[in-house]
UniProtKB/TrEMBL annotation:
Zinc-finger among keywords: no
Annotated Pfam families: TauD (PF02668)
Domain TauD/TfdA-like: 11-261
InterPro entries, sorted: TauD-like_sf, TauD/TfdA-like, TfdA_dioxygenase
Organism, scientific name: Streptomyces flaveus
Record keywords, A-Z: Dioxygenase, Iron, Metal-binding, Oxidoreductase
Listed cofactors: Fe(2+)
Gene Ontology molecular function terms on file: dioxygenase activity; metal ion binding
The organism's place on the tree of life at top rank: Bacteria
Cited Gene3D superfamilies: Clavaminate synthase-like
Lineage: Bacteria, Bacillati, Actinomycetota, Actinomycetes, Kitasatosporales
Family note: Belongs to the TfdA dioxygenase family.
Designated name of the protein: Dioxygenase TauD/TfdA family protein
């Protein structure tokens, strides 16, 4: 019978002694863990691509990226044609803030190769961070709206782009949404991260300072878990409320993670 323990008091569950990752009872427990704890870990599960897709499909509909349901996470352009843009993943972010009305529900990763140095993944729980804000701050933030953009994220990763690169980034649409996401189940989370460019109606410097302050609040140790990858590890997380980032590693590293993406069912509030 699989056993569980918390990865951090504020987020995460590790399952141990897993013999059948597709067992319906285990899947139900995994779904509950994702909803209430945000991050799920099973060390050394060693799923192949078909097994990873099968397990992910039990958590929801798996979307195809460039026609495939397994997407390689690598800085090697021969393995990932989007490797150039993965530099943005070294900064805290939520997936889909600039692309989708309904963001990705969950993401899963299986480690195929790991970096010799660095290359971990960090997670931070914005549900817990919001709940622990002083009441006056929660009231203040409820009415604020934030503009998210692809350009904001890329400028963090590459602050000195060429004019052509900057024009291409800025040609992509921006998206405005509430800073506080009011969920249909009554919970609240914060929609921030590297794509958060500015706060509507606030002076740029003041808005930037507030967004940076909130990100520092959300990513403090008590709301954060750092995962050091081992080959075969399986990790899934609730992309709608769990900020995440990759820790730096050498571009020549063979680090390779296989990702699946589970589509969402609730639009940004």
């Amino acid at each position: 019978m699989p056993e569980t323990h918390a990865l951090n008091p504020s987020l995460g569950v590790e399952f141990t002694h897993v013999t059948d990752p597709l067992d319906e009872k285990l899947v139900a427990r995994c779904a509950e863990a994702l909803k209430w704890r945000g991050v799920l870990l099973i060390r050394g599960l060693n799923l192949d691509d078909e097994q990873q897709i099968a397990l992910s499909s039990k958590l929801g509909e798996v979307v195809s990226v460039r026609g495939k349901r397994i997407f390689p996470i690598s800085l090697d352009p021969s393995k990932n044609p989007s490797a150039e843009y993965l530099r943005g993943t070294f900064h805290w972010h939520l997936d889909g803030t600039t692309d989708d009305d309904v963001p990705v529900k969950a993401t899963t990763l299986t480690a195929r190769h790991v970096a010799m140095k660095g290359g971990g993944t960090e997670f931070a729980n914005t549900y817990a961070a919001y709940e622990n804000l002083p009441e006056q701050d929660r009231k203040r933030y409820e009415s604020l709206r934030v503009v998210h953009s692809f350009a904001a994220a890329q400028l963090r990763a590459k602050p000195d782009p060429s004019e052509k690169e900057l024009a291409r980034w800025r040609s992509l649409p921006e998206r405005e949404m509430s800073l506080v996401w009011r969920r249909r189940d009554g919970r609240r989370s914060l929609v921030i991260g590297t794509t958060a460019d500015r706060i509507v109606g606030m002076a740029p410097d003041e808005g930037r300072a507030l967004l940076d302050e909130l990100q520092d609040w959300c990513t403090q140790d008590r709301f954060r878990y750092t995962h050091d990858w081992q080959v075969g590890d399986f990790v899934a997380w609730d992309n709608t409320a769990i900020l995440h980032r990759a820790l730096p590693y050498d571009r020549s590293s063979e680090r390779l993670l296989h990702r699946t993406t589970v589509v969402g069912d609730e639009a940004f509030g």
